[in-house]
Design a protein that fits this description.
The strands form two sheets. This protein has a six-stranded mixed β-sheet with strand order 6-7-8-3-9-10, with helices on both faces. Strands 2-1-4-5 form a four-stranded antiparallel β-sheet. It is globular. The protein has helices spanning about 40-50, 50-60, 85-90, 105-115, 120-135, 135-140, 150-160, 180-195, 210, 230-235, 240-245, and strands at about 1-10, 15-25, 30-35, 65-75, 75-80, 90-95, 170, 200-205, 215-220, 225-230. Strand 1 (about 1-10) and strand 2 form a beta hairpin. About 40% of the residues lie in helices and about 25% in strands.
C-alpha cells in the first residue's frame, strides 16, 4: 500500500529521521515504537504531508529550515510532494497526538467539520461509521468537546479521522496519557478497524506493551534511526525490547 524509501528529515541541522525505510501492506496493523523524540511524530507528519505545510510556514516567517529527502510511494505513486488535502482525498488520514479537537464546538459539530472535503451524504455515513466504533460518542454528541475527558477527546479525535473513511489511518500516540482501561478500549477499537472495516492502520507509540500484541509488524526507532524490525510476537519476545519498554 505505502512504502517509505530512505526518508531523511532535517530541522535546521538537527536530523529527525535518518535514512528510514518501511513498508505497509493492505489490511495490516503496523506499529512504530520509540521513546520521546525518537522521530515518530516527524514520520507521521511526513506521511500525512503536514511537513510540507510546516516547511512553507517556517520559510514564510523566517523560522527554522526544514529539509526532506527520500520518497513516499502510495500504491506505486510518488506522493512525496503532494499536499495534505490531496493525500486525504486519496485516503491517507492522520489522527494527531494529544487529541486536537475544537473545544467550543460540540462532538457532532467536530465530526461534521472533519468531513469538509466530503459530500454531505458521505459525511453522514462517516459519522455513523465513527458512532459504530465509539458508541459512547452518541450520548455525548451535543456536548462541547472542551468538556470531554481525555479519553473521550481521544475517541472524538479518532472519530473525526474516520469520518473521511480512511484507507490508511495514521494514529500518532493514541494511548498517550490514558488510563489502562481506556488504552485497552482504544486498542480493541484499532483491531475492529482492521477486522470489521478493512482499514489499514499505522500506529506510533512509546507504550509498547498494549500495542505489540495486535500489530502484524513493528519498527523500533531510536534517534530517528531504524534499530529493529519484526512481527509483534518477535518484538514482544525480544529481551532488548522487554528491557527498554517493559522494564523487565
Amino acid at each position: 500500500m505505502i512504502e517509505v524509501q530512505n526518508l531523511m528529515v532535517f530541522f535546521e541541522n538537527a536530523l529527525a529521521l535518518n535514512d528510514f525505510s518501511m513498508k505497509i501492506e493492505d489490511g495490516e496493523i503496523v506499529g512504530v515504537i520509540g521513546s520521546n523524540s525518537a522521530g515518530k511524530t516527524t514520520l507521521m507528519n511526513t506521511l500525512s504531508g503536514l511537513i510540507i505545510d510546516m516547511r512553507v510556514k517556517e520559510k514564510r516567517k523566517g523560522g527554522e529550515r526544514i529539509t526532506v529527502y527520500g520518497k513516499i510511494l502510495y500504491r506505486g505513486e510518488d506522493i512525496s510532494g503532494m499536499s495534505p488535502s490531496d493525500r486525504v482525498r486519496k485516503g491517507i488520514v492522520l489522527s494527531r497526538e494529544r487529541h486536537p479537537v475544537f473545544p467550543e464546538s460540540s462532538v457532532l459539530e467536530n465530526l461534521k467539520i472533519a468531513g469538509y472535503l466530503r459530500k454531505q451524504s458521505e459525511i453522514r455515513e462517516g459519522i455513523e461509521y465513527a458512532y459504530r466504533l465509539f458508541p459512547a460518542l452518541v450520548a455525548l454528541k451535543r456536548r462541547k468537546a472542551g468538556f470531554l475527558s481525555g479519553g473521550e477527546q481521544q475517541m472524538l479525535a479518532i472519530g473525526m479521522s474516520l469520518v473521511v473513511r480512511p484507507k490508511l489511518l495514521l494514529l500518532d500516540e493514541p494511548l498517550l496519557g490514558l488510563s489502562p482501561m481506556l488504552q485497552k478500549m482504544l486498542v480493541d477499537a484499532i483491531c475492529r478497524l482492521k477486522d470489521e472495516f478493512g482499514t489499514t492502520v499505522l500506529v506510533t507509540e512509546q507504550f509498547a506493551r498494549p500495542v505489540l500484541p495486535i500489530i502484524d509488524r513493528g519498527y523500533v526507532i531510536e534517534n530517528g534511526m531504524l534499530t529493529l524490525t519484526g512481527t509483534g510476537r518477535e518484538l514482544m519476545d525480544n529481551p532488548e525490547i522487554k528491557a527498554a519498554y517493559f522494564g523487565i
